[in-house]
Structure formats: structure tokens, C-alpha cells
Write a structure and sequence with these properties.
This protein is α/β, with parallel strands linked by helices. Helix content is about 50%, strand content about 25%. It contains four helices and five strands; from the N terminus they run E-E-E-H-E-H-E-H-H. It has a five-stranded mixed sheet with strand order 3-2-1-4-5, with helices on both faces. Strand 1 and strand 2 form a beta hairpin. The radius of gyration is 14 Å and the shape is globular.
Length: about 140
């Protein structure tokens, strides 16, 4: 995938988004929106892709700690397939195990101490963690 990428942390309540630079070095949290339906989430993400002119999408795949798939894994796979069809972009899945825990820890380290404040930011930060993990993994494969 070339150009900017969009990272997506898809959930039944909220969807977190993150983006990275065109050189695939640094991911940054973008925003979070409330999930109304899978279709509206796909449309919202597709609109962000068009607005930012991204070249590809990385969606976090929720796996159990032992690496097996869950019910939510199937939902995410369906979301990713539909997102690829709607946007025409390549969509890759990336293991998101513990991304929300890491995102919460990063927010605490950044001084966001109130749980209510972290709750508003954790999904976009989780998308950042997913996207940065994907970028770092790809750069290790190349290097």
C-alpha cells in the first residue's frame, strides 16, 4: 500500500480512526465516532478515506489472547470486506490484541488521568496503536 494509510479500530459502540504520513513512519490518532450501524460506519470511514486521499486501510482484527478468532473477529472481517468494496482500496487486517490496553496506558502517560476523558480518546488511540504496529511490522519486513 502506498500513500497515507487509515487505521481503523472497529467496534459495536465506537469506531476509532488514525492516519499516518505517506512514508509510513508515524501514525497519529484522528478521531472517534459513534457506531449507528455497520453500513453507516462503512460510509463514514469511506468519506474520511476520500477526504484524506488515503492509499489503503488497516483494520484491527480482534483475536483472543490465544490467537483464536472470536464472534467480533467475524464482524470485523465482514466490515473490512465491505469497506474494501465501497472504497476500492486495499484493506488489510492486523492483529489488535491488547491495543486498547496499550492505548489507555499511553493516554495515562500523556497526562489524561480522568477515565471519562480517556474514554473519549481511547478508540482513536487504539487505531493509532494498530496502525503503528502495522507500519513497524512492514518496515521490519523490508529492512
Amino acid at each position: 500500500m502506498t500513500g497515507k494509510l487509515l487505521g481503523v479500530d472497529f467496534g459495536l459502540k465506537r469506531v476509532g480512526l488514525a492516519t499516518c504520513d505517506g512514508m509510513h513512519i508515524l501514525a497519529s490518532p484522528l478521531r472517534t465516532f459513534t457506531t449507528k450501524s455497520m453500513r453507516s460506519s462503512i460510509d463514514t470511514v469511506a468519506a474520511v478515506c476520500a477526504e484524506l486521499c488515503v492509499g489503503g486501510i488497516v483494520v484491527g482484527l480482534p483475536l483472543n489472547l490465544d490467537g483464536t478468532e472470536s464472534v467480533q473477529s467475524g464482524r470485523v472481517r465482514s466490515f473490512a470486506r465491505a469497506l474494501g468494496k465501497v472504497t476500492g482500496l486495499k484493506v488489510e487486517l492486523f492483529d489488535e490484541r491488547l491495543s486498547t490496553v496499550e492505548a489507555d496506558e499511553l493516554l495515562i502517560e500523556a497526562g489524561v488521568t480522568r477515565a471519562a476523558d480517556r474514554a473519549k480518546l481511547v478508540d482513536s488511540m487504539a487505531a493509532k496503536v494498530i496502525l503503528q504496529g502495522y507500519i513497524d511490522n512492514k518496515n521490519r519486513e523490508i529492512g
